[in-house]
Amino acid sequence: MSASHKPQPIGNVLGALFQDRGYRQKIDESRAVDAWPRVAVAGAVRATESAWMREGVLTVKLRSSAWRHTLHLQREQWRQKINEHLGREVVREIVFR
């Protein structure tokens, strides 16, 4: 019997299926958007109008130019925090608008 016919943990099977079908990226993008209000400070969350992610870039639209400036200066730290929260490198860049 070949190795591919041996029983595999369901997590491995689903992970491979998601990767093969391109679902992993969509799931990761959704998780990154959901992570923003969980890791950001309360004031930044209140100032957030919307957030979305495409091709490794998390874009956060803010209502406040003061928050936009402050967060822009700290964007690398926020990127690292979100990736830590997700447990792997998902966000390669954050843009605050």
Q: What's the quick description here?
A:
This protein has helices at 10-21, 23-39, 42-47, 65-73, 75-86, and strands at residues 48-54, 57-62, 93-96. It has 97 residues and is α+β, with helices and mostly antiparallel strands. Strand 1 (48-54) and strand 2 form a beta hairpin.
CATH class value: Alpha Beta
Shape: elongated
- Uncertain residue segments: none
Main beta-sheet annotation: 3 strands, mixed
Q: Could you give the count of β-strands?
A: 3
Describe the 3D structure.
By secondary structure, this protein is α+β, with helices and mostly antiparallel strands. It contains 5 helices and 3 strands. A hairpin with a 2-residue loop joins β1 (48-54) and β2 (57-62). 19% of the residues are buried. α2 packs across α5 (75-86). The protein has a 3-stranded mixed sheet with strand order 1-2-3. The protein has helices at 10-21, 23-39, 42-47, 65-73, 75-86, and strands at 48-54, 57-62, 93-96. It has one domain (24-96): GMP Synthetase, Chain A, domain 3, CATH 3.30.300. It starts with 9 loop residues before the first helix and ends with a strand. Helix content is 58%, strand content 18%. The longest helix is centred in the first third of the chain and has 17 residues, at 23-39. Pfam families: DciA. InterPro entries: DciA-like. It comes from Rubricoccus marinus.
SSE layout:
Layout: H1 10-21, H2 23-39, H3 42-47, E1 48-54, E2 57-62, H4 65-73, H5 75-86, E3 93-96
Parallel strand pairs: 2-3
Antiparallel strand pairs: 1-2
Helix pairs in contact: 2-5
